[in-house]
Amino acid sequence: MEKEKWQIPFDHPDAVSLLTQRLNELLAPHSHRPLLCLCIGTDRSSGDTLGPLVGTLLTEAPSPNIQICGTLAQPVHAFSLNQVVAEITQLPKTPLIIAIDASLGKQKEVGMVEVGEGALVPGKGVGKQLPAVGDIHIKGIVNAAGAMPSHILQTTRFHVTYEMAIKISRALLTVAATHSTPPI
């Protein structure tokens, strides 16, 4: 039986506080582990910028309690993901990885932010075979899936992606402020 998805519309008036609450619930059993946000995507496609935008926003308001991999300047994408994951496994402390990525979904889910336990599989919606990553995942459903997924991501409204990134990064910064584990 599949777990019920926890989703919230990015434009919900209490999106940041509800995302923060959900993240705190998922992080509570892992308070001893340092946090690492693995922000996946590319700056070459408006719909796929969600992860790098979140990473960039997190670096602009740095927190000593959170490590960031993936920004607009240095994206983590299909060509670099395996190398970045290999580097993460070499860190002296095993971090709790929060994987963040854009996703295509059903029309009724467009604009939803999903937060849940377990890994996400980047590139799945565009037919790429990449490793599942993350202990916790955050997916922003930026557009509806269709026949040409790469084209759909390239023509996604940047406003949706940008607003999602703002809400997600604010929630992550709030969570990081109360996460007492020293950085990696």
TrEMBL record:
Keywords: Hydrolase, Protease. SUPFAM superfamilies: HybD-like. The keyword NADP does not apply. GO terms for molecular function: peptidase activity. Coiled coil: none annotated. Pfam families: DUF1256. One of its GO terms (biological process) is proteolysis. This is Spore protease YyaC. It comes from Laceyella sacchari (Thermoactinomyces thalpophilus).
